Amino acid sequence: QSAKLAQDDSQGGEEEASRRRAIMATPATTPEERGEHRLQFAYSLWFSKRAPGNKPNNQRYDQNLKLVCTFDTVEQFWRHYSHLIRPSEMSGHSDYHLFKEGIKPMWEDEANRTGGKWIVRLRKGLASRCWENLILAILGEQFMVGEEVCGAVVSVRFQEDIVSIWNRTASDSQTTLRIRDTLRRVLNLPVNTVMEYKTHTDRQVE
């Protein structure tokens, strides 16, 4: 009988060890299981570049957009971001576009059509810091306007660089002003910095 008990204990131990090995061999399938921190929204990062002499049109602009990555956790963002060229190192007429997943960085997209954007023009050398501060503020929900923020763009040009933040509803003045004030804070802009708001309907009239 004692031999049988010993055999049962041995089998039980082997089963437990086998179960543990199976658990360890099973890959974590969700961000939470991987110990990652999920963002409130998923985002896609796009890149575009055009020759200086080419005037942009909608078809060419769409063709120039290249999807770099999509992510929905803090850790995924840093894994991608750490390998990217910084805006200050890019050549002229290059753009990064960070938008919520499902929203294309074009004013014709349904989410952007009735919205607009705040535009800040920067002297050369400031784009990398300002862009990083802006996208971290967006990912961290510092603007506190829910789904109203669609995305942001950094545009590298020869004489200056430009950052902009796009929102859904241009007619909601209270929200657009809150976005402006938060943008001024996260970029640490001087009080006299010129900030221009442009609606996407202006583009449609053009």
From TrEMBL:
GO cellular component: eukaryotic translation initiation factor 4F complex
Gene3D superfamilies referenced in this protein's UniProt entry, alphabetically: RNA Cap, Translation Initiation Factor Eif4e
Keyword Protein biosynthesis tagged: yes
Keywords for the protein's UniProt record, in alphabetical order: Initiation factor, Protein biosynthesis, RNA-binding
InterPro entries, alphabetized: TIF_eIF4e-like, TIF_eIF_4E, TIF_eIF_4E_CS
MF (Gene Ontology): RNA 7-methylguanosine cap binding; translation initiation factor activity
Pfam families: IF4E
Biased composition (Polar residues): 1-10
Segments for region (Disordered): 1-35
Domain of life per record: Eukaryota
PANTHER family for this protein: EUKARYOTIC TRANSLATION INITIATION FACTOR 4E HOMOLOGOUS PROTEIN, ISOFORM B, EUKARYOTIC TRANSLATION INITIATION FACTOR 4E RELATED
Family statement drawn from the similarity comment of this UniProt entry: Belongs to the eukaryotic initiation factor 4E family.
Name of the protein in its database record: eIF-4F 25 kDa subunit
Native source organism of the sequence: Amblyomma triste (Neotropical tick)
Lineage summary: Eukaryota, Metazoa, Ecdysozoa, Arthropoda, Chelicerata
